[in-house]
Amino acid sequence: MAKLHAYSVDKSSLLEQHTVLVKRIAYHLLARLPASVIVDDLIQSGMIGLFEAANNFDNSKGASFETFAGIRIRGAMLDEIRRGDWVPRSVHKNSRMISEAIKCLEAEYGRDVTDAEVSEKLNISLNDYHHILNEVSSGKIIGIEDLGVSEDALDMADSHRQDDPYASIEQSVFKKSLAECISTLPEREALVLSLYYDEELNLREIGQVLDVSESRVSQIHSQAMHRLKARMQSWQS
Predict the structure, then answer these.
(1) How many Cβ atoms from other residues are within 10 Å of residue 4's Cβ?
(2) Rounded to an integer, what distance in angstroms lies between the CA atom of residue 57 and that of residue 173?
(3) From its phi and psi, is residue 206 left (phi > 0), alpha (psi between -120 and 50) or beta?
(4) What is the distance, to the nearest Å, from the Cα of residue 47 to the centroid of all Cα atoms in its chain?
(5) Do residues 143 and 195 both lie within one domain?
(6) What is the pLDDT of residues 158-198, one digit of tens each?
(7) Domains contained in the chain, number
(8) How many CA atoms lie within 13 A of 53 on its CB side?
(9) What is the pTM of this model?
(10) What is the CATH number of the domain that holds 191?
(11) Which domain does 50 fall in, by range?
(12) 69 found inside a domain
């Protein structure tokens, strides 16, 4: 079946119309990355993702081009970041340590555990625990893809997965499990995730909504993702 490009315009016009989308996603990601990451590098990778989206978009699947392209653009940026290998081993180690501590404590107490309880379990001060949360959040992409299923797997615009019955079932089950886990998060953590991933606010904007510092939003986001990782461990590779 021939693939149809959005809006029935030539490819160069399609790319030009969505350059602003590439920049918006780049700056959204940059807000939680180390200073060593250059926004121009993200934009360059994102433009490659946009070009691939323009080549592969099939509007018969029902999704808008902007939705389809957004996934491809973000994926291209994340791939470039991972190829850079700029994440220290200590960041990965601390991330695993936090998830394991949360998993053990919640299994023991049968409820959400607090920052103070996690820091006590790790035998570190609360300030040190918050510092680690910020370090992990700024030093590593912590997102849905870290739960064991790629973000592409969540979007029905991916025609290859849509044509694969097993992948379609996996999508459905994973999305249901993720939604159930998010609904059980502490209210503030669930709100931060909603504002970040659904409303696409950056950390500073979320801080203004919650009347807390950007640093505190980073901590809440990081702990929410670690709590989800602990509760959805069966989906992690």
Answers:
(1) 11
(2) 25
(3) alpha
(4) 19
(5) yes
(6) 444 444 444 455 556 666 777 788 888 999 999 998 888 77
(7) 2
(8) 29
(9) 0.59
(10) 1.20.140
(11) 6-84
(12) yes
Looking at the fold, whether 164 and 204 belong to one and the same domain comes out as yes
**One domain for residues 103 and 197:** yes
Residues 86 and 38 sit within 8 Å (Cβ to Cβ): no
What is the residue type of 107?
Answer: A
3-state per-residue secondary structure call for 16-69? HHCHHHHHHHHHHHHCCCCCCCCHHHHHHHHHHHHHHHHHHCCHHHCCCHHHHH
Tell me if 219 is assigned to some domain: yes
Assess whether 185 and 206 both reside in one domain.
yes
Write down how long the chain is: 237
At 11, list the tokens. 């490819």
In our burial notation (b when 16+ CB lie closer than 10 A, e otherwise), range 146-173 reads: bbebebbbbbebbbebbeeeeeeeebee
pLDDT surpasses 90 at 56: no
- Residue 132 belongs to a domain: yes
Tokens (6 digits) for 55: 């080549």
Q: Does residue 102 register a pLDDT over 50?
A: yes
31-41 per-position pLDDT tens digit: 766 666 778 88
